[in-house]
Amino acid sequence: MSSFLLHADTVTDLMRDVTAAAAAGAARLAGARQPHEPASHDEIDRALSRIDLDAPLHDFGAAVDELDRTWLRHAVWFHHPRTLAHLNCPVAVPAVAAETLAATVNVSMDTWDQSKAATVMERSLLTWTAQRIGFPDIADGMFTPGGTTSNLQALMLARDECLERSARTPHAAPRPVRAASLRILASAESHFSVSTAARILGLDDDCVVPVPVDAAGALSVPALRRVLADLATQSLTPMAVVATAGTTDRGTIDPLEDVAQVCAQHGVWFHVDAAYGGALLVSPTRRDRLAGIERADSVTVDFHKAWFQPIGCSAVIVRDGRTLRHCAHHAAYLNPADTPEPNQVDRSLQTTRRFEALKLWVTLRTMGPDAIGAMFDAVIDLAARVAHEVRADARFELVCDPSLSTVLFRWTPPEAGNDDAAGAPLAAHASSTTGTGPDAVDETADRWVRPIRRAVWDTGRATVAETEVAGRPCLKFTLLNPQTTLDDVREVLDLIHETALSLTAHDRTGKARA
Ligand SMILES: *Cc1c(COP(=O)(O)O)cnc(C)c1O
């Protein structure tokens, strides 16, 4: 039985099995001619349900063969140049290899006595990131599984700093009473994990106050001032302002400098969610777009987005490392307060924790930060060129200018009244519901967003995302692959157009039959 446990006598097995696993992945990856092979949920479910988890194969090679048939065959490939749907990146080779190394050693990052040099490496990376941000020497931080957790941890610190301060006021109300008056200010385009964090933190249901955005989707500073003034009249306490550096949809960077100014005036914790845009920290040409981030109290950076790291790899970086004390719990069995060396669990919401920092470390040591930043620059440049094409293409409507590497657009149904396949039924549909005119055209374009996204995905030949901007649905390219070319994207645009035409033709046939 123990022949499957890693020890000195099984290192040959380790090398053989890791090679076999890598080879299976590599073969599928190299052979992937499109983002994924179409297969229904039922089909996949049926194949997997035949596997009896109580009847092991006793052979790793056989297990990999089975995986190849049941999983890898159906994987979605994020390195494929026509995979354009999500903020999930192709990954750096050194980082993938480092994952194996981290698992081999099975470091647990919670205490010094389990991690030693790994703790120093992790702490160096956090300091390095803090320096990139421009934080003072007292900065610190923590690795987390993702931006969702980084935002949670940042807002927990903000809450506890705020409650600690209010506890010192004369005749302070009990903590739950004070907590009920706390508000988090974030733009309507901020990530939903801000609300999730608020719920987990036990704050009031309506504690996240949306701050209106300007036409570009950036948090409006005058509106922020108004909301703050409004809270004051209601005796509510602003606990944190969240600015986003790279919103998930539009890639908008909120005006960090101005928001910092307002936060300083009001003594409010300033959190910057740079889950997406944080990779600008290593951009050789666009670092200036994050100006003002150095004035934040906390920053979320997702290395598993535009830093080309495998999931999960995120960090929350804080201006003042002492604020991390709010996460500390000293358990007798684990991390007595008088340990001379750092126990990272004292700063984390997790206990047992993977050495996620290793892959980033190895990537930096192998490729260097400029190479990562240059890859992010490349996809930002590509987005600009794609937007330029889309704007000039009568088949599509560009929804807004890209800010980072997303492009938002809609398919434009051919004009009502012409002879194109889609014209007549769409006009009929539009006039039956909303009358004719530009609004009707808008509605038809909107109506096709979801079916198009789905139909394109069903082909397996490309993936494109859908979202909503200013209350209207649209299609979205998330460009995170520096290998994707303008021609690849053109191919996808053609596919979208053909798919849309055939959907609308179907629609007409269906209506005719009905
Ligand atoms: C992706 C994203 C998150 C969530 O991060 P996860 O790593 O998916 O948990 C938070 N904020 C922004 C702006 C994001 O784009």
TrEMBL record:
Record region (Disordered): 419-443
Keyword terms, alphabetized: Decarboxylase, Lyase, Pyridoxal phosphate
InterPro entries linked to this entry: Aromatic_deC (IPR010977), PyrdxlP-dep_de-COase (IPR002129), PyrdxlP-dep_Trfase (IPR015424), PyrdxlP-dep_Trfase_major (IPR015421), PyrdxlP-dep_Trfase_small (IPR015422)
SUPFAM superfamilies associated with the record: PLP-dependent transferases (SSF53383)
Coiled coil: none
GO terms assigned for molecular function: aromatic-L-amino-acid decarboxylase activity; pyridoxal phosphate binding
Residues carrying N6-(pyridoxal phosphate)lysine: 305
A GO BP entry: amino acid metabolic process
Keyword Disulfide bond: no
Composition bias type Low complexity, residue spans: 419-430
UniProt cofactor(s): pyridoxal 5'-phosphate
PANTHER family: CYSTEINE SULFINIC ACID DECARBOXYLASE (PTHR45677:SF8), GLUTAMATE DECARBOXYLASE-RELATED (PTHR45677)
Family: Belongs to the group II decarboxylase family.
UniProt protein name: Pyridoxal-dependent decarboxylase
Species, as recorded: Kocuria marina
Lineage of the organism: Bacteria, Bacillati, Actinomycetota, Actinomycetes, Micrococcales
